[in-house]
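User: Second chain of the day. Same drill as before.
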Amino acid sequence: MNNSLRVSQNSINLLRQSGYHQFGDVTPGQDLSDDIAIVRPLYIGSMLISYLVGERDTYHNVAKETLNSFKKELIGTFNDDELQELCLELNISFADLGENTHNGRVRALIQYGQRHGRLADLVAYCRRERPHIAWPQFPVVDTPTIKSKSDLAIVISINQPALEHAASHLAEIQVDCNFVLLTTTPDYANSQWLPNNTDWQPAVQDFYQTMQHNAVRIPRVRRHFFFATPLPYAFAIGCAWGLVHQGDELYHWAGSSYVRVLTSTRDWRNKQDDSP
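Assistant: Same format as last time:
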């Protein structure tokens, strides 16, 4: 399933609700997250800030058989009143489970545990209340992880908000990816152009450092570059980055949506000899 568009929309909401009004408000290593998306500060520069934006991946390695066994034990050993007690102690809204049957509420409870990294808490409670049952073992998830994907969109969003537009285009062409967002506004609430009365060299260096971090943390992915930048800045970051990777896709804003205009190739650097 391609969740790129929904991830981008949720990430934008997370940033706008973050209280990040200045670069100094952002704490490295402190994620923003909800049930769907994670926004992770990647590099905090002097003119640009970058975030790794991805789909939340919780308990992706838990076997379906293990979850089914857990559901069967919960259904057979806890009635609705006892489920309410469980939810009350673990600070989970019983009413929000939103099901009309006991089996449905147990299923919704386990799905909640998966989304929020609370399966270990559910099992610990069950083990305490029903110690005679062999409950499954789930890992404790301290921090959610971002689902690994083979495509990465690098969205340089200065002239206009570009993240959702990029995600929309990728969804249309059925590319499921994570994102690196570079922006001048930490809360991504509006567009802020680079200043006309200051040299843009620090912004070029911010891009370069972001790409260095990206290369270390997320190697071996197909990259998609989306530009919403002044032309001199686009030229400068191309000069600074300087590496041509075979197969990178480049996209141009065509007035109402993005379109792919180039696929990178090492042949760009080869001199074409047209002489007879």
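The helical segments are 4-16, 64-77, 80-89, 102-116, 119-129, 163-172, 201-217, 231-241.

User: Great, on to the next one.
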